[in-house]
Amino acid sequence: QVQLVESGGGLVQAGGSLRLSCAASGRTFRSYTMGWFRQAPGKEREFVAAINWSSDNTYYADSVKGRFTISRDNRKNTVYLQMNNLNPDDTAVYYCAADPMGRGVATMVFLRGGYWGQGTQVTVSS
Question: Which of 73, 87, 89, 124 is most buried (most C-beta within 10 Å)?
């Protein structure tokens, strides 16, 4: 069983930055495709970003492209989401997800199953 634990959420003003972290248990982390999703109040969960096992392939939602950066450190079993130039529309609970099948980053958009964290709240004030 893989456990994912997110951290780094909080309250930030518009234009500010936050860095989310997701720590994973399990020795096979390095083979997983990892991703971030978010869910705002009253809205469906949406894909944010994904990264493959070797970090040479990433994929972003259009709404965050150029502002967010996903990265990972396989030695630390951790994936990160650096969020810059935040705006109130980015307010949501952010979830870390793992695809143990190691599929392509674009397939994370449609991830079903896999492993999920409990989420961390990000609130951006105007």
Answer: 124
